[in-house]
Structure formats: C-alpha cells, structure tokens
Fold these 3 entries.
Entry 1:
Amino acid sequence: MSKVLIETSKFLSYVLRHEPQSIGLSLDTEGWASVDALIAAAVQHGRTLDRPLIEQVVTTSEKKRFALSADGSSIRAVQGHSADSVAISFEEKAPPAVLYHGTATRFLESIRAQGLLPGSRHHVHLSEDVQTATNVGRRYGKPVVLAIAAGAMHDQGIKFFQAQNGVWLTTHVPPCFLSSDS
Ligand code: HQG
C-alpha cells in the first residue's frame, strides 16, 4: 500500500473512530458520516482528500476497516470506535468456541488480574485466528496471544457481536475465561 493510502487510512480511522470533532465532522449513532461533508471538513483542515482516494482506501484496506453506504453517500469505520456519539447496533452472534486476543507481554499481569477491558474503545476486540491476534499484539511490544473461552462465556449469557469485517467484539472478558496463551 502506498504512503498516501496508509496516511489517509490513519486519518480516516482517527476521525471516523475517535475524534470527528477535530475537523468539525459529525457522525450519527451508527457511525456514518456524509462523504461530501468529510471531504469538505478534511480539505478545510489542510488535508488532500477526494472521493477516488476514499474509495481506494476502502477497497484496499486489508482489514476492511471502512464501509461505504449502498448509495455511496456515507462512510463509516466498521469497528474500533471510542467516540461517545457513536453506538453501533451490532448484531448479536454466537461466537466460535475459542477466540484470540493479541496483546503485549507487559500488559499480561494486569490482564490476568482484571480480565480484558475495552480501554478507550467501546469493545474488547477478538480475532478468529492466532496470526491476526499476533499482529495486533505486536503494535504494543512483544506480542503474546491469549486464547479466550468464548463459547463458555456465551453459554453464561455474555454477549458477542461480529463487526462487518469479521472482528469479534464483547464488553469484558473476565480472567477465568482467559484459558491459555501461546
Ligand atoms: C490491553 C486494531 C492492561 C489490550 C486491531 C490492548 C484491533 C489491557 C490494549 C483493534 C487490559 C488496548 C483493537 C487490562 C486490555 N490491563 N491492558 N486489564 N485489557 N488491555 O488498540 O485490541 O488496525 O484499544 O490487550 O487490529 O489492541 O486499528 O485494542 O493491548 O482489531 O484497524 O489494552 O485495533 O485494528 O489497545 O486493538 P487497543 P486492541 P486497526
């Protein structure tokens, strides 16, 4: 992916997940922003942004971070939000028996004590495969992958959701469901 696409993807993640107000943009509760308003706000704040660039970021994002509405008029990040104005109505779904969470070794002691917490985001993020989880963990230091007994959690009534891009979401993983690490 080119430098411009990576930069633009980071910018879109920032404004569509975390700080829309930093460029004077509003998101609705489902996280949608008008593409025209996004472009106008970005340009006003000194960014180079147009529809073809947005479309390229959306289609080349290997994690499928963003979605355009069917008519192309709106865009949102499909998960990963911290913005208070957003409360996406994710569909509840039964998870596979085991899901994975990648983190850094330096967080392990705290995670073992408190379980997995969402931090500033709305959800704890879990993946179906160890490789993805390892890459997520590497962002913060020496990676370690925790296996989560998601099936057992779900059996006990804890809700799971799956974002459009396949990432699994839940609000808290209590320590007793952190079955192992690899
Ligand atoms: C850790 C990326 C101490 C947690 C990824 C993580 C993901 C604790 C960090 C998505 C803890 C939060 C989200 C506790 C959790 N004590 N540390 N009790 N509970 N943590 O970035 O899951 O590239 O907010 O392990 O692919 O790393 O942005 O969450 O290390 O899907 O599209 O606190 O972001 O996607 O970090 O990553 P984050 P995450 P994108």
Entry 2:
Amino acid sequence: MSTLTARQLLPSFAPTGALGKKVDVLVVGVASSDDGVEIALAEGIIADDLLSEVLDGLVAVGATGKAEQINRIPAPAALDVESVVSVGLGSSEKIDAEQIRRSAGAAARALTGVANAATTLSLLDLEAATIGFALGAYSFTEFKSASPEPGSAGHPVEHIDVLTESPRTQATKAALSRAVAIAEAVATARELVNTPPSHLFPAEFARRAKELGSAAGLKVQIFDEKALERGGYGGIIGVGKGSSRPPRLVRLTYSCGKRGAKKVALVGKGITFDTGGISIKPAAGMENMTSDMAGAAAVVATIVAAAQLELPIDIVASVPMAENMPSSTAQRPGDVLTQYGGTTVEVINTDAEGRLVLADAIVRACEDDPDYLIDTATLTGAQMVALGNRTPGVMGTDDFRDRVAAISQDIGENGWPMPMPSELRGDLDSKVADLANVTNHRWGGMSAAALFLKEFVADGVEWAHLDVAGPAYNTSGPWGYTGKGGTGVPVRTMLAVLEDIADNG
Ligand code: BES
Ligand code: MN
Ligand code: ZN
C-alpha cells in the first residue's frame, strides 16, 4: 500500500501580480463597516468601476460581510473570470490572521468542482490565506469507490493563484513555500488520523512514519514487539498485548548539524484504536477512537516538516504505537507493569492506556538530554469536559507551558494553560506499586493524567503536555478550514514552537 504525499492532497499555489487568463473563479474578501459592505483590498486587481459593480452584485445576492458567509455572482463581462465568490471577513475593524485563515478555508470548501481559482485574500496576509485555502480544500476520499473527477462537482479546487504585490521576489516565494509546507504537515497528520483502524495498525503506522521520515532525510529506528520486550518497555507492551497486531516504538531523529543547537524531544500518543481494553468503552461513539493516534500523527508530521524547513535545532521524536484491545492476552485491571526506567504502575483501569505508552516514551526521550520536551495526546475525555472540542489543554513546567499556550493562540489552535494541582498527585498513589494509572474519582481528570506523566519527565527539562482529545478530531460539521474528521491539531502549534525555539532559544 502506498502513502499519498501531502502535496497530492492539497491544491497547488502560485504567486501572481494580476488576474491570469485561465482563472475560473475569483475569491474576494468582504467586510462589514460603518459605511456598509466593502471589498477588502482588491484595488488594482479589479478596475475601480468594475469593483463597485461587483460589490453591488454581491450585496444584491445577500453579502453582508458576516464572517465566513459565501456568496457567488457571475462576473461582469469586462472581468476575465466566470464568477466572483465573496467570503465574509467580519468587521473591517478586526480582521486578524485567524479570520483570514477561516474565511479562506470556508471559501475553499465552497469551490469544489472548480479547477482554477484566484484570490485577493492573500493581499491581506499571504501565509494565512494560503494555509486557510489549503486546509479548507483537504478532503479524505481514499475509501470512496467513486471519487469525483478533477474539475467535476465534489472534487476539491485544484489550483489557486495567490495575488500579491510582489509575486517575483524571493521573500514572496519563501513565504508561500513555508505556508504550503505547514499546510502539508497538517494534511499529513489528517490523512493518518482519517485512515481507519482496519488499515492503520501499529506496524503499518510505523511503516508509514518510516517512509515519511526517510523521504525527509531523518534517521528512523523502529522497535518491534521483541525489541520492546527486550528493552523493558512495559507500558507499551502492557497496552499492546491484548491485540493480535503487536505494538511499536518509532524514533525519528533530525539533526541540523549546528554545534550548540537546542534539542527538542517530541512524544505523541499512537493508540491506533482504543476500545478501552478489558475496561471496555460503551459502543456509542467508540468509532471515534480511530483518532487516538492523533498525537503521534501530529508528531510525525511536525518533525518531517521541521526537517523540510531546515530549522536550526535538533529534534528527536519518540512515538509509541499500540492497539488497545480486550482479549485473553490483554492486561487486566489490577495488573502491575514496569515502565521503561523501572517505575512500577498498577493498572486499575485499562482505558487509561495513553499515559502508560507515553510514560515509556517520555523516559526514553529524556535519556537524550533534551532542552525541551513536548508531548501531545488524545489523552482524556476530561479535556473536553473542561475546555470543549476546540481548545487544547496545555500543562507542564510553568514558563514553557505559558509560552506554548501563547504561541498556540497566536496561530489559531488556541491552546489554553491549565494547572496541575498538587493535591491530585496523592490520588495516584497505589497500595501495591509506585503509582496507580488512575485516581478513584473524576475530578480534574485532565490534570491528573498530566500529573501521572510528570512523574516520568526528567528534572531540568522544560516540558509542555498538550491534551487534544477534542481538538484533534472533528465529529461535527465543517467550519473555517476544518473539515470533518482529523484536524491536524496540534501540528501548527508544535511547528510554531519549534520555530520560536530556533529563533529565541
Ligand atoms: N482515548 C481516551 C480519551 C479520549 C476520550 C479521547 C474521548 C478522545 C475523545 C483515553 O484513552 C481514555 O479512555 N481516557 C479515559 C481516562 C479515564 C479512564 C481516567 C477517559 O477520559 O475516560
Ligand atoms: Mn482509553
Ligand atoms: Zn486512549
């Protein structure tokens, strides 16, 4: 089975200074202001007299500038395109990068069946418009036997000309390829998350991680079940042993080749399906547990993109992969396992499996002596109870936690800092082992899971833990640049944090 490259999953983009001949649809942004509706930054692209004709036409079919509202009109004969699509940007007073991404994404979703589009949204913010269009155009069709032909209804838009004042400069080309690389990383993570558990099991996930990593020039090491057993990875073995499809640990290494470069460890939860194990989950909604490897997918996509962007830092990703199944070989509630590094854990609830595989990977990651460690996981339902479906919880060491959350808000993934109240730690004490994997109550479940992980993070490492249980997988309707299914969260947060470390240490 082959792996589609992310480039094939997204439209192509080209910078341009004027409307080309082959453009079918021109996408403009419209904003609301005190003076009514206005078209944002299209002077010079659309001649002044045509601009008012286009605006009148859009207003006549209902355009108000409301955020993400889509309207479409046939283009005036003098404008060399078939139709003009407007997308709302909200109030002209506060059009930020995230609004541009969301509006571009909504426009891209409305452009199915269109071969060539052009947009002026890039005149507001080229990177935001490109990322929004790319992600809005993503769809997962691998398992549709009748997928629409290019250019026909239902097929995503194929090419987008991004209008800019300086199409030929190095800076523009660099900005565009950076935006496309970021979008490709998100699409790669989405593709892995959307691949059903029948087709993505630990060995296959490891194979795909290796294929992606090798293509990006990373060093890739795969531990199979025998190597994990020999190495003492009791958490990964314990969680994986109920499945006929054995677990893996994948390690991907990117070295920038610069002396004194900062070193960042990434760790992602890769449960290819989470039934809960013997502590089995209810049937309703269990199918969504195909997303329980979203942290791992994001980590793989992030390190690959960091290598492509040649970030001047060293990165090692440790990605544990297992399928959490009930069977006669599964671990039992009450079993005691020995994590990598020697800590013993009483497994009171086999559905709290993510922390067990992460603990092994975190201890291994810390042996490399990283300056920073970021782990991410669809770890707790409690994340959704606390913060809803779109807001990752960020925990960890104080300064780095706040830095990661601030960056996450800046790029539109909106991670929020959460505490790890120390009084919860005692509730993880076990009568028989060093630790229990759950508390005996529901309170602060997201923080309790983070406190469990904290036990395995080496002293002196700046650490951030991102719980993306809700944000990684969209089970409701599409919005902005986010379709149904895998969202790619928190790829853009992690990439932006890596860039920030590269710039500021
Ligand atoms: N994978 C789940 C968490 C999850 C829930 C992710 C909903 C996405 C959506 C995790 O392994 C789990 O089952 N956590 C338990 C922990 C509990 C047993 C302490 C939970 O949240 O119920
Ligand atoms: Mn679980
Ligand atoms: Zn899980």
Entry 3:
Amino acid sequence: MDKLIIFDTTLRDGEQAPGATLNEREKIEIARELVALGVDVIEAGFPISSKGDFAAVKAIASSVKGAIICGLARAVTKDIDAAYQATKSAKGGARIHVFLATSKIHMQYKLKKAEDEILRLAAESVRYAKKYTSDIEFSPEDASRTEPDFLFKVVESVIAAGAKTVNIPDTVGYAYPQQYGDLIRAIKENVPNIDRAVISVHCHNDLGLAVANSLAAVRNGARQVECTINGIGERAGNASLEEIVMSVKTRRDIYPGVQTSIATRELYKASRLVSKLTGFVVAPNKAIVGANAFRHESGIHQDGVIKKRQTYEIIAPEDVGFTGTGLVLGKHSGKHAFIKRLEELGIKLSDAELSRSFEKFKDLADKKKTVYEEDIVSLIEDEINKPAQIWQLDSIAYSSGTNVTPQATVRLKYKGKITESTSAGDGPVDACYKAIEKLTKVKSKLLDYRIEAVTSGKDALGEVSVRVAADKRVATGRGSSTDIIEASAKAFLNAVNKLSVRPSKSEILHL
Ligand code: KIV
Ligand code: ZN
C-alpha cells in the first residue's frame, strides 16, 4: 500500500475562514470527530497567535488521542517554543510545523529579506525545533510562486536540517493542476535528499482548483495532503478533505495503490458537525456532502438508478455516511422503529435523551406529513447536542404583516420558572430576539443569520444558523422547526446559552 497521509487543518486554516470562530469545547469536539474519521495529523492551531489558540491546542493535545497533533509556528524561536509547549502532551505524537515565505514578492515586500537570509532562517528554525521533536514539517510559504531553483535549495536545506515533511503550499490559490503537478515532480528530480522527507501539498481555492491541484500533486508523488472538512479556510478556502479522499478511493485506476486511512462513512457526520459549529452552511450542490449530492430529480435518472444504481451514481451514498432521503417514519411509528432508525443512522443516545428525542419526533410527525432522515438528524442535533440549557424556550407568539408593527411574546424557562416578555421589532425575528435579550439580559450583536430548508416540501423543517457576539466572545447557534420564527428563536437562544456560561480562558478572543 502507498499511504497518502491526511493532514487536517480545519482547526487552523479552516478556522481562519472569516467568521468561523470556534471555542475550545467546539474545537475538542471537532478534533474527536477527526480521530473517528481516521485523519493522520490534526493541525490544531497556531499557538503563538493568541492565548485562546494556545489553550485550545494544549487541551486537544492532552485530551484527544489517536492522531498526531500539530502546532503551527513562524520561523522564530518564540513561535516554535509555543508550538512545542502546546503540543508536547499529545499521546499520538506531536508535530511542529514551521513556515517561512520564499516567493520574491513575499521576501521583498512582506519580510524585507534577501534569499540568503531566508535560506539561513529556514534551516536554523528547523534545527531549533529539532531540540524538541523529530517530527518537523517545513512550509516555504507561497511555494507555487517561488523561483523553482530557490525553492529546491530551501527544500534541500530544511531536509538537511531535520525536516521530515516538506509542504509545498499554493498559498494564494494561483497554481494550475498540470503546472503544480510538474512542480512536485521537479522537486523530486532536483532535490538530492528528497527521499528523506514526505512531500506534502497545501492548496487554496481562489480559482476553485484546490482539489484538482492537490490531486495533480498526488499523481506526481506527493504523499501528504493538507485539507479541511467542507473545504473551509482562509478566503475561498482550502482543498476539501472529503473530495480528495473520495477521489482517490473512487478513481483507483488513476491513483494505483494509493490509500488513505479515512473511515469514509464518517464523512457526512464530520461535515455536519463542522457546519453546525462554524455556522457555515454546506451548499446543497457541494460534492460528496451536499444535500443534493445523491438526489436524482430527473425521471430518466431516477429510472436508471432504480434499474442499476451505478447508471447515475459513482459513489454509494452509504460509503460517505449519507443514508438517503427516503420516507422513514410517520406519526404512527412507534418507539421501537424510531430506535432502529437511529441505530441505522449511527446515532447513540442515553435513555433520557432517547425519551426526549422520541417526544420531539412525535411532535414533529404531528406537524409534518413525512419525516425524513435529515429531519431526524436535525432534530437530534437541536434537542440533544445542545450546551447547558440555562434558558429554555417555553413558547413564542408573534404577529406581523403588511402595515402591522411586528411584535413577539417570548416565554422562557429559567431555573424552573417561567418568565415572559413582549417586544416590537423590524420584523418578527428581530422582535423575538429583542424579547429574548430583555429576558436573558445578554446584550449581544447578531453577526450572521442563515436559514435553509432541511428537506423539500411546504412543511419542511426550517433550520436556522446564527452567529452572535457578546463581550468579545462569539457563539454559533442552530435551531430547527417547521415554524421559521420558532427555529430562529431556538437558534438565538442556543447561542445565548453558550454565551451565558462563564467562558473558559480560551473562549475569550484575543484579537
Ligand atoms: O497557505 C499557506 O501557505 C499556509 C501555510 C502556513 C502552510 O497556510
Ligand atoms: Zn493555508
């Protein structure tokens, strides 16, 4: 087997996506899912960048077992010290990832340093990191726009200094597949000690080519790919993990012998989790994990799939953990059928959670004629995976319309008691958020609000995702209901509940 190492950077480059702030607890939850997925390396953060990032990387290193935990560092000693301190307790091994720009434009304008100095700093930083660990990765930042001869020299000298992985970033997403593949081949042919290191690639998606470029690199000898769940990341994002993994798996003819350790059946779950916690909704047409990725609308396609699935499906939906969109349960379904369906969906609940979610399912089945698997997943996420429920939504009533001032009355349960408030607003959602603010006294700012239908049809569940800021902290919230104002209230309250919990040190943003 020719192993392709999957280096996940959802928690570092992914979290650099504008608006994708995650707190420590959320990062640990994602790291655990990445281990379940089978990624080899988790880049957990950039420890020197903030106290919060340092604490989160440290918490992941000490509590998440099953993958190498990596910390990013610039080529300076204080960054390398911080990366080591944050990752040193990792049971599955710690990696220090040092980067330094090597392209002319970065060296001249950003770093104001000449080639010789860059070469010296690159090698020195790797030698310095070596006193901590032998697992050192070096990235010549903006490698794809670096003069090839200089790039070869840098790569050779960092390997000589002790780097075990050399990562070739396409930092600004400028590369083209053929050209980038040729660059990887040229590195193999022109760097004399290249056999002593793994060639890694790290592609950004500014031209929509991050996955294509990464795959071209794999064809030319790269054996580590850096990627993120759902392709989230700086600007237009990074190469998407699920697309890389499924391409290599589906087109074995193009990557003979190349294999990853990814448990592909976890892909859909990992995608949902990252989407839920970052508040970044996955586009329905997103390859592999989009809601439409396995839906067939045209009659000709449906007919073909019924006769032979492979006529229009190159991947079996269950191979990525997507269990289909069929009618699963209705209002006459009993608890036994519900439990069985949850088992099939890979959802494990405690007895108390099961009773609560079954009740919620019955309520939903009363309102909605057909209950789909996506509805059940959304309901469980909404009702079970929520943080400490300091404030609970008891009921909501609102009025709105043309020439009517929108108004909402919200009743919340707090420490067993019901409190109620009425507010007017610019619309029913605004009125309802103002009423919640009056009751909870959490003064917050709504940064983002999104709504999407979980399934199709007039009675579809509406799923609302919000990002809310208060006191230098940001929290995301999700809520679903057949009533979109109620879904909006639940999502907002979900975020407010997170903000009401006393913050751990790492949750305070150090911007
Ligand atoms: O895009 C980039 O160049 C990076 C490096 C730090 C690897 O993220
Ligand atoms: Zn990057």
